[in-house]
Amino acid sequence: MQVLKKEVSEFELFYDLIFAYAISRIASILFVGADQVLSFKSLGEFLMLTLVFWTIWTYQTVFANRFSIKNKTSALFLFFDMFWVIILAQSINVDFEKTHFTFAGATSILFFSIALQYYLKMRSTEDSVVKKLCSQLAIVLCASGVIGFITIVPWGAYSVRFSVYALAIVITAFFPIVMKKALEDFPTNFGHLTERYNLFTLLLFGEAVIAVANTIIFNEISIGSVLFFLLVVVMFLFYNAVYKSGIDRQKATAGLVLIHAHYFIFVGLGISIVLYENYVEGGINPLFFTLCLAASLIFFLGGTIVNMIIYTKNKHNYLPFISKSVLYFVAWIVVSLLLQDFMAPFLIVNIVFLLFLLYKVKQELK
C-alpha cells in the first residue's frame, strides 16, 4: 500500500513546540547534589519521563504521518492535546509522587485522545489493513490509559503504583515492535517521518543553546562557555550530516528503527547537555561527569549511526567503520579520564573527537 506524499505542516510544528518545551523541563530533575553527582533516582526519572513524552509524541506523529489531513477535526484534536501536554509539562517535579495524580491523569487523557483518533479512522475506512492497524493501536492506548487512571487511586504503596504505571508506559512505547508485520503492510511516508523527527531534534538543539546561555554572564564570557557552544554545534552537525546524506528518505518501511532510535538520541542529547552545563559551571565531580558523558554520547551517537546503517542510501559494509569507531571511542574515554580535571583541554578533546567522528561518517557516506 502506498502512502501519499506530504510535507510537515505548520500545525505539526506548532504541536512540536510544546513537546520540546516539556522535554527541556524534564532536565530540571537532573540536579547535582552536594556530593557533586546526579542521583540514580533522578536519572531513572529522567529516562521514564522522557519515555512518557516520547511515546505520546510518537503515537500522534505516526497517526499524522499515515492518516492525518488538514481539517477542523484534526485541528481540534491537536489543540486539545496541546493543552494537556502543557499540563503534563507543568506536572514535572523533583518530588514525582506529589504530582503523580495530575501527571498520570493527563497521560491517560492524552492516550484516550489519540486512541479515539485511531478509532475514528478505523470506522471511516473499508481497508482491512488500516482497520487492523488502527484497532490494535487504539486498544493498547486505551489499556494504558485505563492503567494510568488506576494508578492515581490510592490503593497501595506509591512505589507499587508507580511501577505499574511505568510498566504500562514501557509496554505502550515498544508495543509497535510486536506489530511490525501490520505496520509494514501499511508503510509510513518515510520522507515525512524523517523530516518530522529531524525538525523535532532541531528544536531540542535549540534548547541546548539555551543551556549554553545559562552559563554566560553578560559581562563575563568564559572559555568553558565558548567551548560548550562549539560542542553543541558539532553535535548538531553530526546529526544533520547523517540526516541529510545518510538516510534514504524514499524507503518503503515501517520506520520502527528510526522511531525507537530517536528515544535514545533524545535521552543522550538531553543528559549530555545537562552534564556539560554543570561541568562548565564547576558543579559536578569530573570523574562522574566523564563516565556519565560517555554513556550519554553512546546513546546519542549510537542512535544516530544506527539510523545511518539501517536506512543507508546505498548498500555498504559498515562493519569496519563500526569496529574502528569503537576503538576511537575507547581512546577518547582514556584521554578524557586523564584530562578530566582540566576544563579547557578536556572540552577541546571532546570537540576534536566529535569532529573526527563526523569526518569519518562523511567519508563513509561518499
From TrEMBL:
Entry keyword annotation includes Transport: no
Keyword Cytoplasm: no
Domain of life: Bacteria
Transmembrane segments: 12-34, 46-63, 75-94, 100-121, 133-156, 162-179, 199-217, 223-242, 254-276, 288-311, 318-338, 344-361
InterPro entries according to UniProt: Low_temperature_requirement_A
Keywords annotated in UniProt: Membrane, Transmembrane, Transmembrane helix
Stated name of the protein: Low temperature requirement protein A
Organism the protein comes from: Enterococcus ureasiticus
